[in-house]
Amino acid sequence: MAEDLEDPREVPWHPRLAERVLGHDEEMARFTSAIASGRPHHAWLITGPRGIGKATLAYKLANHVLSLANPAQTPRWIAARSHPDLFVLERGFTDSKPKRLKQEIVVDDARRMSEFFSHTSGSGGWRIAIVDCADELNTEAANALLKLVEEPPDKALILLLSHRPGRLLRTLRSRCRRLTLSALDEATVGDILNRLPLPAADGDALAAAARLSGGSPGRALELRDSLGAKAFDNFLKARSLTPGTKLAVAGYFAQRQAAVQDFEIFADLLLDWLAREAAAEPGTDRAAALARAHQEISATRGVVAGYNLDRRTAALNALATIEDALKAA
Known about the structure:
Structural class: alpha/beta
CATH topology of the largest domain: Rossmann fold
Largest sheet: 5 strands, parallel
Shape: elongated
Mean pLDDT: 93
C-alpha cells in the first residue's frame, strides 16, 4: 500500500530543499576553501546541537561540490533525490505493515554506501555520501563506515552529521575533519522560519518559537504549534507564581491524552530554564535551590511518564516546586 511507504521526514522544508544556509558562513567557507585547494580531506564530521542546520549545510556542501561538474542539473537532482553521485545514509524502514522507521542505521544500509562508492562517478567528478546522522549507527554499521573512512576511494567525500560526537567511535572521530556549528541567534532563527513554506501560523507563535528554541530552527518547528511551548511562555511572562498563574499554565494540559507530548516539551523547556538560571549564579543559595528543583522535577517527570499520570497535576506540582525553591533562596 502506498501509505506504507510514507516517510515522516519528507516535509516541504526538508534540508535538501533549502535555498541557502543561514548563520554558518564561516564553516561553509572553510569547506569550500578546502575543495578549492584540490586536495580536501575525504571525511568531514559536522557537529552541533540538534536542529541548528547541520543537514542543510551538508546538502549545500554537496551541492557546491557536485555543481562543479554539472551546475545546471545538480540542484534539481538533489531536490528530487535523484543525483547519481550523492548517497544519503539514514535509517531505513522495517518490513512490518505498516512500515515504520527503524530505531538505528543497520549494517546492510552501511554496506549499500560502500557499494555506491564502488561505482564510478556518473559525471566524472566527486561522489558524496551524507550520513544523517552518525549517532544512529549501530555497532556493526559504525565499523563498516569506519573501514570506508580508513580506506577511502578516490574522489570520495563523506559528510557525517552528529548531535553528540562524543558517543561516536574514537577512531572514527579521529579520521574526520570537524566542522562545529553553534546555536543561532534569535533573529536568524526567526529569519529561517519566515523563509520556510510553513502552513499559515500566528506571527506571535513563530516569534515565541524562535525565542524559546535555544538557537535551533528545528527545535523552533517543534515548538511552533505546541501547547507546551505556550504554557512555558506564559510561565516566563508571569511576574510571580500566584495561584492564578499556576492554574493558567497547568490548564494547557487539561486534556489528558492530548497533553502527553505537550507536557514533555513544557518539561524540557522548564528544566533548561532551571539549568540556565542555576548556572548564572554559581555558588549562591539561589543556584543551589534551583538545582535541587531541577533534580526533583526531572525525577518526577520520569514517574509521570512511566505511570501515565495526569499532566495538569504534574505541571502544578512542578511550578510549586519552583515557587518553593525561589522562596528558599
